Amino acid sequence: MNFSFAYTLAGVGATLFLFAVWFVAGVLLENRRIKQKCLLLADSISVLRSGRAAEGELTEAQRACFEHLADAFNTYIRPNAKYKTALVKALNSICGCSHSQLDMFDCFENRRMNGFFKDMVDKSGYLFINMIYMAHLEQKGYHMAELEHSLSKKL
Q1: Among 77, 92, 130, 136, which has the highest number of CB atoms less than 10 A from its own CB?
Q2: Transmembrane residues, as ranges (predicted)?
Q3: 136, 49 in Cβ contact below 8 A?
Q4: What is the full per-residue pLDDT of the chain (155 aa) written as tens digits?
């Protein structure tokens, strides 16, 4: 075997190894960012749950939390019809209500605290966060069918 060929092969191997390390580090960093966003959303829901006034008035901190939830909705759920429908159906089945997508849009786009908002925060806030998480994964290229398939192989 020629030494120059061996050095070339070693260089290619080292390059592939560095690329793999770089890719894995990027995936781990992105996963950390997603989890951090979801933890902030969970904190926002906790703040809204614990101190929301009965007449619908929000303090400055609660208003910031509401804006944070609305921004997350508009960034991740609004572009995906599947999650808009799923959020409304899940909320209706959890609380026994009959909210529509119009109620959801009135809440998040017009920034109004309506019955949809109150039921979502009180009864299904963490479901909302999970949908944000899944929608964020889909935006990054991980599709739920692929994730379900890979999970079913492991089980």
Answers
A1: 77
A2: 6-29
A3: no
A4: 556 766 676 777 778 777 777 777 777 787 788 888 888 888 888 888 876 544 466 788 888 888 888 999 999 888 888 888 888 998 999 888 899 999 999 988 888 888 888 888 888 888 888 888 888 888 877 766 655 555 555 54
